[in-house]
Amino acid sequence: MSRVTSAQTNFTAGEFSPRLLGRFDIDRYKNGAKTLKNVLIHNAGGASKRPGSKYVGEVKDSSLATRLIEFTFSTTQTYIIEMGNLYMRFYSDNGRVTEDDVTITGVSQADPAEVTAAGHGYSNGDWVVITGVVGMTELNGKVFKVANSGVTFTLTNTDDTAIDSTAYTAYTSGGTVNKVLEVATPYTTAQLFDVQIAQTADLMFLVHNSHAPRTLSRTAANAFTLATITFIGGPFKDDNTTAVTITPSADSGNGITLTASSPIFDTTNHVGAFWKVKDGYVKINSLSSTTVVDDCDVQVKQDGTAGDLNTGVAATTDWAEGAWSLAEGYPGVVSFHEQRAVYGRTTEQPQTFWGSYIRVFEDFFGAFNTEDSDSYAFTISTEQVNAIRWMSSGAKALQIGTFGGTFSASSGSTNAPITPSSIVVQRDTTYGASKIPPKRIGNFVYYIQRNLTSLRELGFDFDIDAQRALDMTLLADHALDPEGDTTGAVDMAYQQSPNNVLWVVRSDGEVATLTRQIDQEVIGWSRQVLGGSFQTDQAKTESVAIIPGLTGDDQVWLIVKRTINSTTRRFVEFIMPQTFVDKDDYFGIDSGLSLDSAKTITGATAAKPVVISSTAHGFSDGDQIKIVDVVGMTDLNDKFYLVANKNANDFELTDTDGNDIDGTGYDAWVSGGEAREMVTTISGLDHLEGQTVKVLADGAVRPDKTVSSGSITLSSKAAKVHVGLGYNADIELLPFEDGSPQGTGRTKMRKIYEIALIMYRTLGLQIGQEDNLVDVIFRTTTVPQDQSPALFTGTKIEPYPHDWNVDGEVFIRQSQPLPMFILAIVLKSEVVDK
Q: How confident is the model at residue 367 (pLDDT cuts 50, 70, 90)?
């Protein structure tokens, strides 16, 4: 029998595929894990519990799939767009974007509740948010639908059930109502994930094969416009080479006719199409047959002057059909490269891409000119059809993902841009791409292979002097394809800060997360399963989008589908930051909300009683409060008081027995501080009705509660409370292979008897085997029984509950709404060497 000490110093290889558990001969095995669930891998190698998700709102129609996309207007103004069936809605600053305020002057205590708000202009079915009502506060902060709109309107919930306010507190005064901002789109549910986007400055370009390209522009902080792009001068297919002629009724102007000598027009799908006729081009408005256009307009020239066909109203064979229309298909791919808008892949020309005039993204006059700044078109010529799936602008080339492989488009010179007369397209790899748009990390492109189950890293390899597309799922083929069941990726987003993480949504609703740090060779997969359930299975994530953070974490937004109170709900949520200050700030629950109504302290007197200044604090005499973060008069911090003799902007302090607080011996107040009311009822949880929820109150775990009538009641008061759905963060190590002087210790009987956990700011763990877990004790005799232990940083050595077996299982679970950050693990075991 041998005694052996084993160590796992990092998790940079991530979760290994179950198919690779026998590959303990490879170097990365010692840095991998069997399970990393609801865990994020850090660049330095540690693994931490994923922060929870904060609930923002329900999508417009929870019965339909919905997509999230990012809109970045500036470095300080970013939006998430909820893209659903024929609409867009917007989120910013962690909440919904709404239209301008409308003042409420009355709300009836009736069934249904009737709102008076002069000049509201709302229509039945509009979603509105009500805030600031005095008296009938039950309405505040909630989303309703408008019904019976007229001079007044009534309220329903989002399920169209009338709001009965007969038992609400009577309306007193004030309040505003804001319509949820919504923009109509042509994109149906089935088309949402086929829409591709590219953004430059304050314009987002959207393309889909079945719709003319459009731009989304932000015209104000709460106003967006979606418009069809009016293109100039094309683009066009190759010039006609047949004997078919077109005869125009005039050389210029609007409302002219075109007559073809043979059928060439599509009476439905050529409406709105551009055609080149000799020296000019026309836009078709209507057709009466396959040979007659009965209404078209001659378009202006590039310089803005009137167009001229120069046919002399004679028949001409000099014509070309527009490359983009319902007949040919509109481009389905868009990017920006070298100051041009580049479009690709129509239905009829799936291997062609078109570049606009330099800095004029709507201009395709290159059909008439050959200047370097003119537009261009190029068709990838290969031995098989390689439909373009995406394009990504790089420093040296436009990289193009196609069904059959990846290509690079350039001028052929590293110092010159693409021009109409100088364009070279080279095949890079033969690994076909899916339609999911790729993401860039540094100089590398990460794309989902066409099988939807592999992620490839496309970049230049100096050793072979060529592009390579390395398989990032080589050691974790289960990450996108568990059990080989053809589960695959459906959406992907990139979180730059912290830790370079790709979030890949799978079709089964799990999210595979890849931490990739190229310089340190970190390639670590883990899996995220959001709390709650859908029907009899786990909750399903359906879409992800990420907006940049300026000073902290990039913000990960998700749409998550759950069954709530027997009804399917799709919620918009965002992952909370990985960094936090105090234990009571940690957010370790999903679809959660917080009670954190902090009132800013602007002064405190060193007197008896202490008088606290706080503008419009809103407290009442007898309210219990907690004070934190005062600078100077620190004697007040982290203690509980009652409010006495309150005024609008100040109040006195007593202890919980009603005795005045004597501050005459305290240090003088310098600055800062917050006061929070202590409560037992947490409301506003309507979205979790009937669900069992986890509770973290003032940094301490409270017993689970069930949401009823949108609220829960705590057994004792708390000031800062987080409530939401629980989830397990699991780390399971790979079977050990050390411990035998005769060779490998793998397959030999092993008993682990001691574990040393090296941790950072951690609390509330269980260890053992998955079906036999015991608590790690963090409480010491110095911690008062009415307080929870402080977060632990350091090494904790524990006896390990383990039976003799051949796998040496090590399992760590965090099931409480508390943080976990494992830096390293050291194990002591006995191995039977025979």
A: very low
